[in-house]
Amino acid sequence: MNIKELLLNGQSFSKLLNQFSIEANDVKIQDEDVLLADHKLEHQEIVKENICIEGKNKDGIVNFFGTLHYNLLSKLAVFEMHGFEQISKPQVC
After folding, report:
1. What's the DSSP call for residue 22?
2. Average pLDDT for the chain
3. Sign of the C-alpha dihedral, residues 85, 24, 16, 18?
4. Mind listing the pLDDT tens digit for each residue in 80-93?
5. What is the pLDDT of residue 42?
């Protein structure tokens, strides 16, 4: 199970996406493969990592910055947002 699926199991992350009109399929966790490949962290109770989550909506791209708290053994993940940025689509004339 990947981190995005773990986050979507919780209500708060789904509500965050709804606030910005972002569909779950349009979400990408930056460097997720690197986080999951770190074998030193896989047996720890709780791991905290600063991450960027990119979402796309009709207005452009939204980057969420914050701390990911996760435990792969218990299959739990929580995203604590610290801020975001909206990158608008370029205007076409």
Report:
1. -
2. 87
3. positive
4. 999 999 998 766 65
5. 59
Each residue's pLDDT tens digit, 36-72? 776 565 567 788 999 999 999 999 999 999 999 988 7
Name the DSSP class of 89.
Answer: P
Residues in CB range of 63: below 8 A, 6 or more apart: 52, 53, 54, 55, 84, 85, 87
Lookup: tokens for 75: 């299959």
**Are residues 69 and 2 in contact, defined by beta-carbon separation less than 8 angstroms?**
no
Closest C-alpha to 20, from 66, 49, 53, 51: 53
- Give one word for 17, left, alpha or beta, with left for phi > 0 and alpha for psi -120 to 50: alpha
Q: First-to-last CA distance in the chain?
A: 43
